[in-house]
Amino acid sequence: MRKPVIAGNWKMNKLVGEASELVAGLWEEISGQDAVEAVVCPPFVDLPSVGRLISERGMTLGLGAQNMHWEESGAFTGEVSPGMLTDLGVTHVIIGHSERRQLFGETDQGVNRKVTSAFEHGLQPIMCCGETLKQRESGQTEDVVSGQVKCGLFELPAEWVSGLVIAYEPIWAIGTGVAASTADAQEVCGYIRGLVAAEYDTGVAESVRIQYGGSVTPENISELMAMDDIDGALVGGASLKADVFSRIVMFS
Q1: What is the pLDDT of residues 40-85, one digit of tens each?
Q2: Residue range 143-152: average pLDDT?
Q3: Considering the domain 5-249 in this protein, what is its CATH number?
Q4: In the 8-state DSSP scheme, what is residue 177?
Q5: Given this model, what pLDDT does residue 90 score?
Q6: Shortest CA distance to 238 belongs to which of 182, 179, 167?
Q7: Looking at 97, 99, 121, 131, which residue is catalytic?
Q8: pTM above the 0.70 mark?
Q9: What backbone torsions phi and psi does residue 77 show, to the nearest 5 degrees?
Q10: Tell me: the pLDDT tens digits for 89-126?
Q11: Which whole number is the average pLDDT over 221-244?
């Protein structure tokens, strides 16, 4: 049985004090639940304070980063290494988000290098994939998603892939208020699981957790989570309010 993983991607929001306040409020709402693996992904500058709070209060809450470089150190101005993240208590890292791909030129090959490095450093990667509205309307969804997933998995050993989280985020649904229908989300998430099975085997594919992301709300989370191949959610705007995100985490 795959344990659902619901991660909140705060993007470029929340000052240090606000971040701690949000996590403290969230914990008040979800403390004691163990049916879902809950993760918060603040901006880099908030990771130290949020990490301390999680540690001091003994929260069973994952701490995620929104990006990382694949190298351990070096002349990469403005970047953050995997070792720097683990030193702060980070447990998860989002890799290949569409905003990183579209706005900052990240490539499928770079995503693969980051996923590899994350596993090598004991981090849980959340590898993102998804198509634009134009690509969907032209019938390219499977081609786009297949290319991103296959490249992201390139030369990864089966034992790593079994522990991978893949986030399907149709770009046309991110921050628009227009979520994919549950049937559409299930269709693509099922297709992704099939890709993993074809590249590895059924056992590996059944172990991979696949999230849906894109205008996830307390109102649609239960229906999404009822789908066979949806094992959680990567939540954007709705993760910025403790009461709203807690309702998503506690969907059951």
Answers
A1: 999 999 999 999 999 999 999 999 999 999 999 999 999 999 999 9
A2: 98
A3: 3.20.20.70
A4: S
A5: 98
A6: 179
A7: 97
A8: yes
A9: -55, 130
A10: 999 999 999 999 999 999 999 999 999 999 999 999 99
A11: 97
> Tokens standing for 195?
């890709």
CA atoms lying within 13 Å on the CB side of residue 47: 24
**Mind giving me the DSSP string for 27-42?**
HHHHTT--SSEEEEE-
Q: Which two tokens stand for residue 10?
A: 């705060």
pLDDT averaged over every residue in the chain: 96
Length of the chain: 252
Quote the tokens at residue 245.
């995100």
Q: Is 146 exposed, middle or buried (0-12, 13-18, 19+ CB in 10 A)?
A: middle
* Residue that has been written with the tokens 């089966």 in this structure: 158
Q: 182: Cβ–Cβ under 8 A, 6 or more apart, which residues?
A: 220, 223, 224, 226, 227
pLDDT in tens, 165-192: 999 999 988 878 777 899 999 999 999 9
Annotated active-site residue in 99, 106, 131, 169: 169
Helices 182-199 and 141-152: crossing angle, nearest 10°? 40
Tell me how far apart the alpha carbons of residues 173 and 170 are, in angstroms, rounded to a whole number. 6
Decide if 97 is catalytic: yes
| Structure token digits, residue 145 | 């998603």
Residue 62, helix vs strand vs coil: strand
Q: Which residues contact 104 (CB under 8 A, 6 or more apart)?
A: none
Tracing tokens 């909140």 back to the chain, one arrives at 8
State how far the Cα of 238 lies from the Cα of 251, in Å rounded to an integer. 14
For 12, the token pair is: 């470029």
Residue 5 CB: number of other CB atoms within 10 A? 22
The distance from CA 5 to its chain's CA centroid, rounded to whole angstroms, is 9
